[in-house]
Amino acid sequence: MDVNEMDLDFFKSIDSGVTLVGDANSQSSYRKGDSGLGVKELQQNLIKLGYTLPKYGADGSFGKESVEVVKAFQRVNGLLDNGVAGENTLAKITELLKAKSAPKQEDLPKVTSIGDKYSFQVKSKVVAGVYKYSNLAEKQKTISNNAIFSVYGYTEGAKAWAVPGGFVKANDVEPLLVTLTTGGLSKDMEAEFRSFLKGEKINSELNIHAKGNPSAEITIAGLQLVKVKQFLDVKGWYYK
Q: Between 138 and which of 33, 101, 132, 224 could a Cys-Cys bridge form, CB atoms 3.0 to 4.6 Å apart?
C-alpha cells in the first residue's frame, strides 16, 4: 500500500464517522514484503501480547499472515487497520508490552513511610539511579554523585529508600549524621534512654551534660535517627 492509498483510507474513515489513527510511513515501519530482525521482533512482540502466527510463527518475514495479525491488533486498539506496522502501531505495541511487564502491586516490596517529620537526608556515593518501583525496577532518571536529598520511606531490610520521584538503592547513598540535643534529662531518664539504645543496638555515644539543666547529645543517621526521634516523641522528652 503506497502513501496515496493510506491517505485515501484515512479520509474514508472520516467520511464514515469513525475516527482512526493512521500510521506514518516512516523508516521504522514494517509492511508486507519486508524481512529481517526488525520484522522478527515485531512478530515476537505480537505473540507476547497474545496474537498468534500459527502457520509461520516469528520467522522474520512479513507475509500475509503477519498482515492479518497486524490488522487484528490495529482494530482492537483503535488504529487504522491497513496491515502496516508504522509509528503509531509500533508505539502502541511498546506501550502494551511495558504495561504487561510492570510488576503487580502485591508482588512489590512493602514500603514503610516515615513522612516529613522523620525524613532524613542522604548523600549519593555514586551516580545513583531513581527507580519507578520499590523492587528497583524501571530506572527513570539518575542523581549525580554527592547530591543531597531526603528519604521519606524504606522497604523491608532497608534495601531501597523512598525518595522524591521514586526509589534509590540504599547502598548507593550514605545517610548524613545529625546531632540531637535533649533537655531536662534526669538520671532515671538517662538510664531509660541508654537501655533503649542498647535494646535497639544503636552504638552511637550518648554524651551527658550534667551541669545546669541536665542534657544529652547523640550524633546519629538514617533509620537509627528515626528510631531515636520516635522514642523521644513517645516519651514526650524535649529535643532539637
A: 132
